[in-house]
Design a protein that fits this description.
alpha+beta, Phosphatase 2c, domain 1, elongated, 6-stranded mixed beta sheet, 5-stranded antiparallel beta sheet, 2 domains
């Protein structure tokens, strides 16, 4: 038994306490993600010669080049040298293995340093996003943000403004650090402009001008759904700037679904673009689900898309299981349903969802 203890400790340390099933699922997700990255580059570099014998060989060659070219030139030379030494075998193989271990250590060091910087960036980003939903008379809000990488290009916010509650969900084109930096700019602009007592359409027009200045000629645009809710009158005034239409489930009328589409083009494309505002009156029990395309454009192992229909079905199941489910429960149900659909496929895009529910 004493001989097994060191082995058990070693296994617990390298596995981080994860079970074999969890380790296999993690390896499968990482393998699928890595393969998709390299295969996409290889396919772009492979001529369209379907049906010819040379295509598979060319595809695999480009696949290997896609892996090698991710290294610095000096490390590529070391990798080639290690491969040659391993092929020579005999007394050279040990030196080749040592070189490979050195390359592995260098790559891990780069990854650790980058991960540390990204984790700091994520902490700053979480500090910018609201930690708690504002209290709303007769209503409640729940929200979540799940980045595809460490940092997110999605944005959500909800805060009091002139006796009403302003809330927004936005998606900056792209993902990762560049999108996250633009997201921070968008958040700062929104809060700065919201201080002034302008109507919603004027606020969005000013926000669009800010976004256009930082959009690099319209290539870094932002889709957004921005709304104000008045608890006293239960009027929701909103504008949809090229965003996925939020789903409004009416409590009465058999759970009728309405899509909030009025608005205009994404922010940052045209500085003088007009964004129409629309109004709707919410009733007790109504539920509004605002989401980014990272939810509906999630894919499973077969390449199928989650889609809007599955999202509506998840909302209906949650409301059928529990009459007037809390906003947090409905949000959790929707996200969990999407994760079950994805299975072992890694999340490809940032996922953000906000649920506004009027209390019965």
């Amino acid at each position: 038994m004493s001989q097994q203890n060191p082995i058990a400790r070693f296994w617990a340390r390298i596995s981080d306490g994860m079970a074999l099933g969890q380790l296999w699922d993690q390896l499968r997700r990482e393998s699928v993600s890595g393969y998709q990255l390299y295969a996409h580059e290889a396919a772009q570099r492979t001529p369209a010669i379907a049906g010819r014998r040379g295509r598979p060989r060319h595809l695999w060659r480009e696949f290997l080049w896609a892996i090698v070219m991710k290294m610095s030139p000096a490390r590529r030379i070391l990798l080639v040298a290690a491969a040659v030494l391993l092929i020579l075998g005999s007394g050279y193989a040990l030196l080749g293995i040592l070189i490979l271990l050195g390359l592995l250590a260098l790559e891990v060091a780069d990854r650790v340093g980058m991960k540390r910087d990204l984790e700091i960036a994520r902490e700053i980003q979480l500090w910018l996003l609201p930690a708690r939903a504002p209290e709303i008379a007769g209503a409640e809000i729940a929200f979540t943000n799940l980045p595809a990488n460490t940092v997110s290009g999605d944005f959500y916010d909800a805060f009091p403004r002139q006796g009403r509650v302003l809330f927004a969900v936005a998606d900056v084109a792209g993902k990762g650090v560049p999108a996250a930096m633009l997201m921070a700019t968008f958040q700062a602009s929104l809060h700065t402009l919201a201080v002034e007592p302008h109507p919603l359409d004027s606020l969005i027009a000013a926000l669009n001008r800010y976004a256009s200045d930082a959009s690099q000629g319209g290539t870094r645009f932002t889709t957004a759904f921005i709304a104000e809710f008045d608890p006293a009158s239960r009027i929701l005034r909103y504008s949809n700037a090229g965003h996925n239409p939020p789903l409004l489930r009416r409590f009465s009328g058999g759970g009728r679904i309405e899509k909030l589409e009025s608005g205009g083009v994404p922010l940052g494309i045209l500085a003088e673009a007009e964004h129409a505002c629309a109004e709707t009156v919410l009733a007790p029990g109504d539920v509004l689900v605002v989401y980014s395309d990272g939810l509906t454009e999630s894919f499973d192992l077969q390449g199928g898309e989650y889609g809007e229909d599955r999202l509506i079905a998840a909302i209906e199941r949650a409301c059928a299981f529990q009459t007037n489910p809390p906003a947090a429960v409905l949000l959790q149900t929707v996200v969990a349903d999407c994760e079950r659909f994805r299975g072992g496929v890694r999340q490809q895009d940032d996922l953000t969802c906000l649920v506004l529910r009027l209390l019965p």
